[in-house]
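Thread: iron/sulfur cluster complex, take 2
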Amino acid sequence: MAKKNIDFIFQTLDKLYPNADTELKYQNGFQLLLAVIMSAQATDKQVNKVTDKLFKTVFEPRDVLEMGLDKFTKAISSINYYKTKAKNIYATCEILDKNPEILSSDLKSLTTLPWVGIKTAKVVSHVLFWTKVIAVDTHVHRVSNRLWLVNTKVPEKTSESLEKIVPDKYKSIAHHGLILFWRYHCTARNPKCQNCPFKDFCKFFNS
Ligand code: SF4
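Output below.
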């Protein structure tokens, strides 16, 4: 993609979402990690509803361990796949309680934790440590391809390609802005194309 289009896309996203950030609520890195794990196949709204109460008493791995698996499972039971998530979060807490250094910017280290894949690791690493990575889910993958930022088949490749072509100065807006753009504008069904600033060169709109 031409550099002028890259500049246009990210400068426009920056104007649309001047305070772009994660919509997950958290007070420390541990809480963010838990919220990101819970957000897989769930909306940020659903997660925030649960963590609004949970994070009044859960600040570190020991708090989850002291709650016990059953009580913790019940506390997050309104979230999709809560049983699997609870089991894996509990196992993560057992590991982090003994090895707190794993919660760092290092992707290899983060992905040793149960249920922490590369996407989750990149979210945590970028949001907490401002690393120059771009986490890509299926939605960001869809939008990036619609905008011709990339021409890829799977989110992992989209993430790698975006990290290569997006200048560092746009990494943060790329990370958060593309999420907000698919969530509120370029939805999978019925995207708001008529008032889209990118429709002149959008693959989807022009096909
Ligand atoms: S024109 Fe439509 S499909 Fe294309 S980026 Fe804009 S909202 Fe999405």
